[in-house]
Amino acid sequence: MDMMFFARRLDRVRRQMNWSQRQLAAVMGVGQPSISKYLQGRSLPSLTALYRLARTSGYRMEWFMSDEADVTKVAEAPAVYGAGKEVPIEQALERLPEEARQAFETLIRSWPYTDNILI
């Protein structure tokens, strides 16, 4: 993935949510210097940080990582996204059709910082 592409998407969301870099860092669970690197296109976040960003902002993780069209928001409001419906990732993966599960695994394996993730 192009780091500058991610940087543009991240900055777009930061501005739409009216977050400072410090607030964005708190949302993602990282330090402000990391946010600066992300916004400059010099680094990419971990999957955990990206998940936190997606969950809080309401944008899908894959939107940050791909050039898909601006169908950006999840169907539920961020305040209730997943509320009371969380299931372990293993159960969620088991429910997916085989083709979707393979696509998910390919996506996860292509993302930096996933060397220790066992799927």
Class derived from helix and strand content: mainly alpha
Helix content: 55-70%
Tally of domains: 2
Q: How large is the radius of gyration?
A: 15 Å
Count of DSSP H/I helices: 7
Unreliable sequence segments: none
CATH class of the largest domain: Mainly Alpha
* Form type: elongated
In the CATH hierarchy, the architecture of the largest domain is: Orthogonal Bundle
Mean pLDDT reading: 79
Query: Could you name the CATH topology of the largest domain?
Result: 434 Repressor (Amino-terminal Domain)
Assign the CATH superfamily of the largest domain. Answer: lambda repressor-like DNA-binding domains
Strand content bin = under 5%
Largest sheet: none
Give me the count of strands: 0
Description:
The protein has helices spanning 3-16, 21-28, 32-39, 47-57, 61-65, 89-95, 98-110. The protein folds into two domains: 1-68, lambda repressor-like DNA-binding domains (434 Repressor (Amino-terminal Domain), Orthogonal Bundle); 86-119. The chain is mainly alpha-helical and 119 residues long. The mean pLDDT is 79. It has seven helices and no strands. The longest helix has 14 residues, at 3-16. Helix content is 55%, strand content 0%. Helix 2 packs across helix 3.
Short structural summary:
This protein is mostly helical. It contains 7 helices and no strands.
